[in-house]
Automatic annotation (TrEMBL):
Stated name of the protein: Glycoside hydrolase 68 family protein
Top-level division of the source organism's lineage: Bacteria
Site, Transition state stabilizer: residue positions: D196
Gene Ontology MF, one: hydrolase activity
Length: 369
C-alpha cells in the first residue's frame, strides 16, 4: 500500500522563504451578483470527460454552484445550500434555479461536487455531497457521496438538465483510513470531511477517479485533513472503490477542501483550497489560498509545488477576499468573493470572483500577471 504524501509544517515554513504570490485586490466593480435574491459560492462547470468545460454553443456553458438566500450571518448559508444550475454566457451569469428537483437529494443540504457529460453529449452525471438527511429535525453534518444522472436538453435557447434518475451512494467510507462525519460538531472550520467529489479521467490509463476531502481516521489531532480518492471499475457495473488517501495534512490542517486534479505538461497537479483559521494554531500557519502538489504518477510520488504547496494567496489587504478555487485545464481559475475589502467589518461577496490564470512549470507554479 502506498502511504499518503505528507504536507507538513516544514513545507508551510518554506512559504516565508519566498515571495508569496497573491491574487489582485478586488474592488466594488468586481462584486457583481448573479441574482439579487441569491448568493453563490463553490462552483464548477459541466465538464467533458477530458475535464474541459462542455460548450452548449459558442461562448455558452452550464455551470453549477452552491446557492442559498442571503442571511445577515453569511455562515448560515451552509445550512440551506442547494446546487444551482447557472448559464455562463460570455462574461455574464444567469441563475436557472436548483439543478435537482425538490425532494430528490437524500440530504437536508447539497454540498460541493462535480459534473460530467458523457461522450454522447446528452447524458450528464452529477457527483455531489449529500449533507445531513432529508427530513431531519435536527441539522446534522453527516456527509455522503452520491451520483445522479440527467439528460442535457439543448432543444431551446435555455439549456436544462431533465429526467433526473439513478440516484445512488457511490463511495462509502473505509473506517481504516477515513473518519466518520456523523455526530461531529458544526462550527465552521471544525467540521470533519467526507465531501467534495471531483471527477478526473486519467489521460494515461483511461481510468476514472474521484478526489474528495476527508479526515484521517485514528488521528490524535483535531487537525487531520486528508485528500481521499476512489477509482471506478471498468465494465457495465462501473462501481466505485475507495482507495487509501493520497495526501495527508495530519497535525497541520483540518480541511483540504475541493481537491481536484489536472494533467498538464505530462504531470499531474492536485489542487486544494484551505484557510488560515483551519491550520493547527500553534503553527506554522499558512495563508488562505490555493495549494497544490505535483507528481508524475497519479497514486503516489506527490511533492508540494514551490517547496511549500502554496500556489497563490489572497492579498495582505484582504486575506479572506476569495475562496474555493477550481482550476480548469486551460489553467484559468474560478473562485467566489468571500470577505472582500469593502466598507463594513465583514463584506461577504457571495458571487463569482474574477477568473485568474496560472502558470505551471514542473514543480513550480504561480499566477499570471
Amino acid at each position: 500500500m502506498t502511504l499518503p504524501a505528507r504536507w507538513t509544517g516544514d513545507h508551510v515554513k518554506a512559504i516565508d522563504a519566498v515571495a508569496v504570490a497573491s491574487a489582485p485586490l478586488l474592488g466594488s466593480s468586481d462584486v457583481v451578483h448573479v441574482a439579487p435574491d441569491l448568493c453563490v459560492w463553490d462552483a464548477w462547470p459541466l465538464q467533458d470527460e477530458s475535464g474541459d468545460p462542455h460548450h452548449i454553443e459558442a461562448g455558452r456553458q452550464l455551470w453549477m454552484a452552491l446557492g442559498a438566500p442571503w442571511f445577515a450571518d453569511p455562515d448560515e448559508r451552509h445550512g440551506h445550500a442547494r446546487i444551482h444550475l447557472l448559464l455562463r454566457d460570455g462574461a455574464t451569469w444567469r441563475d436557472l434555479g436548483p439543478a435537482m428537483p425538490d425532494d430528490f437529494s437524500p440530504g437536508s443540504r447539497e454540498w460541493s461536487g462535480s459534473a460530467v457529460v458523457a461522450a454522447d453529449g446528452v447524458t450528464a452525471t452529477l457527483y455531489f455531497t449529500a449533507t445531513g438527511r432529508r427530513g431531519e429535525t435536527h441539522i446534522s453534518f453527516e456527509q455522503r457521496i452520491f451520483s445522479a444522472s440527467a439528460t442535457l436538453d439543448k432543444s431551446d435557447h435555455m439549456p436544462r438538465l431533465r429526467d433526473w434518475r439513478d440516484l445512488k451512494e457511490i463511495v462509502t467510507r473505509d473506517p481504516a483510513h477515513y473518519m466518520t462525519t456523523s455526530g461531529g460538531e458544526g462550527e465552521v472550520g471544525k467540521i470533519k470531511a467526507f465531501r467534495d467529489p471531483a471527477f478526473f479521467r486519467d489521460p494515461i490509463g483511461g481510468e476514472s477517479y474521484l478526489l474528495f476531502a476527508g479526515s484521517r481516521a485514528g488521528s490524535h489531532s483535531a487537525y487531520n485533513g486528508i485528500v481521499g480518492i476512489a477509482r471506478q471499475d471498468p465494465g457495465p457495473d462501473a462501481r466505485w472503490h475507495i482507495l487509501p488517501p493520497v495526501i495527508s495534512a495530519d497535525t497541520l490542517n483540518n480541511e483540504l477542501e475541493r481537491p481536484h486534479i489536472i494533467f498538464h505538461g505530462d504531470l499531474y497537479y492536485l489542487f486544494w483550497s484551505t484557510q488560515r483559521h483551519v491550520f493547527e494554531p500553534t503553527g506554522p500557519v499558512g495563508p488562505t489560498g490555493l495549494y497544490a502538489m505535483v507528481s508524475d504518477s497519479l497514486l503516489g510520488g506527490w511533492t508540494p509545488v514551490n517547496g511549500s504547496g502554496l500556489v497563490f494567496a489572497n492579498p495582505d489587504a484582504a486575506p479572506a477576499q476569495a475562496y474555493s478555487w477550481f482550476v480548469l485545464p486551460d489553467l484559468s481559475v474560478t473562485s467566489f468573493v468571500d470577505d472582500w475589502a469593502g466598507d463594513g467589518p465583514r463584506n461577504f461577496g457571495g458571487t463569482f470572483a474574477p477568473f485568474v490564470h496560472l502558470w505551471l512549470a514542473g514543480d513550480k507554479a504561480g499566477i499570471v500577471r
